């Protein structure tokens, strides 16, 4: 089964526009643990599209602004889910069932909660 893939275009905040930087609280000098030109698989936070990615220099998933990447394979899993909540900090969310249907699963990934990490892998 295939999933959408993205290529890393930039590894610092200088590759991101000022709207995105101000919404996510990063700076142009922010360095991300990614490798330029690496292909990653992907998942709207504070009005900015982010991808959930295990960076080249990481062991666990983290969220990165979509502007750091270009889509190189547009196909997504057939079993993916989508939800949109206009008043939520995470207003648009799509991905595997637990990502979309389990409250705060995305936060649990960032907090490195074992159960969420197991589901992700």
From TrEMBL:
User: Taxonomically, which superkingdom?
Assistant: Bacteria
Full protein name: Uncharacterized protein
| Originating organism | Enterococcus caccae ATCC BAA-1240
- Organism phylogeny: Bacteria, Bacillati, Bacillota, Bacilli, Lactobacillales
């Amino acid at each position: 089964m295939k999933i959408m893939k993205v290529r890393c275009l930039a590894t610092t905040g200088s590759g991101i526009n000022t709207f995105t930087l101000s919404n996510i609280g990063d700076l142009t000098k922010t360095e991300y643990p990614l490798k330029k030109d690496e292909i990653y698989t992907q998942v709207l936070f504070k009005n900015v599209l982010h991808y959930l990615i295990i960076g080249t220099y990481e062991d666990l998933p983290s969220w990165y602004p979509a502007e750091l990447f270009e889509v190189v394979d547009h196909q997504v899993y057939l079993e993916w889910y989508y939800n949109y909540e206009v008043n939520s900090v995470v207003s648009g969310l799509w991905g595997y069932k637990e990502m979309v249907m389990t409250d705060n699963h995305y936060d649990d990934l960032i907090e490195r909660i074992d159960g969420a990490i197991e589901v992700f892998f």
